[in-house]
Amino acid sequence: MKLAVNSVLFRFWRPYLLFAGALLILADLNASQPPVGVKKGAIWNEKGQVYVLDQKGQRAVWYKDGTRRASGGLSSKGRDGLWHFYYPNGKIEAKGVYQDGSRNGAWEWYADNAVLSSRGSYKQNSKEGLWEFYYPDQKIKMAGLYQSGRRIGTWKNYYPDGQLFYQGDYNADEPHGNWTYYYKNGQLLQKGQMSKGVRVGSWQICVQPGGPCQTEQNRNPAAPRLSHMQKESPISKSLRSTRDPAALLEGMDAGGVPDQTPHGLKNNNPWDR
């Protein structure tokens, strides 16, 4: 009697069990299938959370949702030739040249709306030569020279309207030499000497465009004080507290030197196998 009851129950539930099993199989197949946009043969890289396909000396990489992440050539030593990198929204993030696994040659970086933000060259993974940085409207923001990844020579920083904000000399990535700042109308804000990143000697400082101006002698690395400046003045606060001229008047500055490195460019990145 018990066996008969079980047989009847099995016949009753059998279609539902088969349907549930089919759903599980389909779910497993879908989970193992790459999303639309990913080419056949691509392998899921769990560590990098991307799909990777190496084929005929080329590599293609996709985000988890199937949006392309990067593409470029390969050699026995790693990335080789022109590479492109993309944001999750599909817009270009960076493009540049590799040689035997190292960044060598011209590179360009873009904001996530595909507007150029900086460009320059690399030599053995280090910035080399002239680099330029841009505002969203493509006006020059900052420009200067690199040597082995360190700033050297005269760097210039510009206001959004194109007027020069400051120019100063670098030595081995430290402010060293003549530094001059300007108000937006082009008149002098301050000028003086830097030595290994700190102010030295006499600095001429103008409280407002056209003066009054005053010369202050630096007896310590701190920024010079001006006795006649109002304590609540934002400029006076900056002058009294700032050592690095590149950080002076932060609200007026265009910002520091960007050093963008798209995910996947760094050494030993998670999707290099």
CATH architecture of the largest domain: Alpha-Beta Complex
How is the quaternary structure best described?
single chain
Radius of gyration, in Å, reads: 29 Å
CATH fold type of the largest domain: Outer Surface Protein A, domain 3
Distance between the termini: 62 Å
Number of strands: 16
**Low-pLDDT ranges:** 22-31, 223-258
Order of helices and strands: HEEEEEEEEEEEEEEEEH
Shape: elongated
State which percent range the strand residues make up: 35-45%
Secondary structure category: mainly beta
Provide a count of the helices: 2
Largest sheet: 16 strands, antiparallel
Helix content: 10-25%
Order the strands across the largest sheet as they lie in space: 1-2-3-4-5-6-7-8-9-10-11-12-13-14-15-16
Query: Can you identify the CATH class of the largest domain?
Result: Alpha Beta
Q: What is the domain tally?
A: 3
Q: What does the average pLDDT come to?
A: 79
